[in-house]
Amino acid sequence: MKRPFLSCFGRHLLWAACLLPLFSCNSNSAGEADGETTESAAEDEQTLEPLTTENAVAKLEAFGQNNQDSLAVISTRHGDIKVRLYKDTPLHRANFVRLTRAGFYNEGEFYRVVKGFAVQGGDSDEREMSQGAYKIPQEFNPKYIHKRGALAMARYGDERNPEKESSSHNFYIVTGESVSKEDLLAFEQKHGIDYTPQQEQTYLSIGGEPGLDTEYTVFGEVVEGMDVVEKIEQEPVDASDWPRQIVPHTIKIVNE
């Protein structure tokens, strides 16, 4: 059974008072994850070189320069979810592509489901691939918000992770609901954000989770298959938000 992780539940206004350790990793150690060994797109699947705090950034930068992929498909028993990875969050993009090409995510699952909030994946107790212990420096970009369908990286909470560095492998997709004008203003004041008119309209109409902005790195978005995310969101869960029937996923990189 997966070990529980810190969480801070609540609805919109309540989140503003939380420390937001919400999407903490549920695996071995802070920021742990895997990496592949070489920096070409032709790497052997299943070949992983554990990264470390000391070499992770350099390895990811080198990999990203030689691998410009930005589209991936997450396949589940409910169907496929196509996501676009943002090139101006280069470390997160490179990391996701790197692990995907290694076959790392083919041993993962959506293991946490909070209806009306997000579904979280990447990890699994059945994983056989070895892992290193590294985190990804945050890449907050004001262009990218936690709108419905946003793809972002999990992390440990501020007390143990004041730099807000991302997990190396646990990710989530936002399924949040529409936000009121008053709540959105409260989040702007709380986090020192000045949303553009378009971003404001996105939250008011499409929905999302503005309480997570400037707290977690958004590095992509769903471009097809949000209906599949909604099906995962409807999975029955236990008291810890684990789906009662696991939702394994595989991920592959696809051409533009």
TrEMBL record:
<keyword id="KW-0697">Rotamase</keyword>
<dbReference type="InterPro" id="IPR002130">
    <property type="entry name" value="Cyclophilin-type_PPIase_dom"/>
</dbReference>
<keyword id="KW-0413">Isomerase</keyword>
<protein>
    <recommendedName>
        <fullName>peptidylprolyl isomerase</fullName>
        <ecNumber>5.2.1.8</ecNumber>
    </recommendedName>
</protein>
<dbReference type="GO" id="GO:0016853">
    <property type="term" value="F:isomerase activity"/>
</dbReference>
<feature type="domain" description="PPIase cyclophilin-type">
    <location>
        <begin position="79"/>
        <end position="247"/>
    </location>
</feature>
<dbReference type="Pfam" id="PF00160">
    <property type="entry name" value="Pro_isomerase"/>
</dbReference>
<feature type="signal peptide">
    <location>
        <begin position="1"/>
        <end position="30"/>
    </location>
</feature>
<dbReference type="InterPro" id="IPR029000">
    <property type="entry name" value="Cyclophilin-like_dom_sf"/>
</dbReference>
<keyword id="KW-0732">Signal</keyword>
<dbReference type="InterPro" id="IPR044666">
    <property type="entry name" value="Cyclophilin_A-like"/>
</dbReference>
